[in-house]
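Annex B. Sample input.
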Amino acid sequence: MPVEDLVELYLCLKDLPKRVLVSSFRVTSSGKEGWSPVFFSNFPGSPTSEETVLDVALSSSAAPVYFPSHNGRIDGGMVANNPSTAAVCAAVDRNLGGQALERVYLLSVGTGSWQISIKDDTTRWGAFEWMFYPDPMLPLLSILFNGSVSADELYTSQLLTSRYYRLNTTLPRNISLDDYQKIPALMQLAQNYNIGPAAGWAKSNWF
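Annex B, continued. Sample output.
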């Protein structure tokens, strides 16, 4: 079902009852500015609070190759595939959340991880191997996307220590972004995942 059929056309971020932060990346500009990350939010005073939820959703999910860009913006995963660190920064920013770091607790919910590595010796690799090596496919792009997820997890855990919890299952194999036929299998993985430790963390820290 198209996202346009799920979201009210004129619902804005400012109309949402909870604070949100959504990542995207602007690739076009009519002025002298170059491309840059965009973080939509509805914090008081946010310049993006008037953006519609629909525009934000389409901008944040516009993965290159898979979907068209939206208003010159593409998938936020290009710069924040795991937006945990961005969320912490927004929470403590004096112009946004205004919270002390010691008051920030973060439950990070992933979409499943796949243990990936290159088995061959890469010492003599050139541009062709880094781009077109078959296992894993497109290794350089995989590193750019997946490496940032692990890095953000490390940064956030160092900042928050026990006030941070990562909830993320391990996938049995890589699943393509556009492989909708795997949705039932993903749902089954989620239903079988033991959320007991995460629930215990939430109960101890939030309730």
